[in-house]
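User: Sequence recovery, please. Input:
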């Protein structure tokens, strides 16, 4: 679970090591439990290939609600994230 990684050096070392391992074994790494923009920004700026999950991104919802949610997300947080990384 990712919590306060933007300011926690121990967590930063763990995630860095895990990304190296995931890359070596060609598997995806999921950062779980993202609840703060600071953590989201830290992860996306340093690990662009990492998969993200957490209440900041979306609360649990039915599968059929996913397409509508995704379109709304792209207009809000997703647009903000893309503008800061281009």
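Assistant: Recovered sequence (86 residues):
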């Amino acid at each position: 679970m990712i919590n306060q990684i933007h300011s926690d050096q121990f967590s930063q070392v763990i995630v860095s090591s895990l990304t190296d391992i995931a890359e070596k074994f060609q598997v995806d790494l999921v950062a779980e439990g993202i609840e703060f923009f600071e953590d989201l920004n830290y992860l996306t700026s340093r690990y662009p290939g990492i998969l993200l999950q957490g209440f900041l991104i979306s609360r649990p919802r039915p599968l059929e609600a996913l397409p509508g949610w995704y379109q709304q997300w792209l207009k809000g947080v997703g647009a903000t994230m893309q503008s800061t990384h281009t």
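The longest strand covers residues 30-32.
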